[in-house]
């Protein structure tokens, strides 16, 4: 969200409006527009953003059980098509029957983009 507020996200990336962002905000009961506005206006550090979340979330949404349920969901969700094949192609990975977890492919895609951005500077 901080990168989006500074127009530094690669084309096609969204912040707070889809995917894991919206799943997390919904799980926490946070409004995506209010959250994005806070981030854009204050550009908080990770810890400051975490403190803001704790101030704005109902405590029962931050229990260890609730956190474990969300983490399990994120860490077991397979990347859907066509995004799966697109990212595999971009990274030069085989488009075989390997089940790729969405968060893993997202990380690899992000690192690939960061690497390209850094070597193109």
Tell me what the structure shows:
This protein is globular. The chain contains seven helices and no strands. α6 crosses α7. With 121 residues, the chain is mainly alpha-helical. The mean pLDDT is 89. The chain folds into two domains: 1-76, no CATH class; 79-121, no CATH class. It has helices at 2-5, 19-28, 32-42, 46-56, 64-76, 83-91, 102-119.
Count of DSSP-assigned helices: 7
| Helix content class | 55-70%
Helix-strand pattern: HHHHHHH
Q: In terms of structural class, how would the helical and strand content be classed?
A: mainly alpha
Strand content: under 5%
Low-confidence stretches are: none
Distance between the termini: 22 Å
Name the shape in a single word. Answer: globular
Count the strands?
0
Number of discrete domains: 2
Based on CA atoms alone, the radius of gyration comes out at 16 Å
Mean pLDDT: 89
Biggest beta sheet attributes: none
């Amino acid at each position: 969200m901080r990168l989006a507020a500074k127009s530094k996200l690669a084309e096609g990336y969204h912040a707070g409006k889809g995917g894991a962002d919206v799943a997390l905000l919904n799980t926490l009961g946070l409004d995506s527009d209010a959250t994005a506005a806070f981030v854009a206006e204050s550009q908080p550090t990770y810890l400051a953003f975490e403190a803001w979340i704790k101030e704005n979330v109902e405590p029962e949404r931050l229990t260890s059980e609730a956190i474990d349920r969300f983490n399990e969901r994120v860490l077991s969700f397979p990347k859907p098509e066509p995004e799966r094949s697109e990212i595999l192609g971009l990274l030069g990975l085989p488009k075989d029957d390997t089940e790729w977890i969405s968060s893993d492919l997202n990380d690899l895609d992000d690192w690939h983009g960061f690497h390209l951005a850094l070597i193109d500077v």
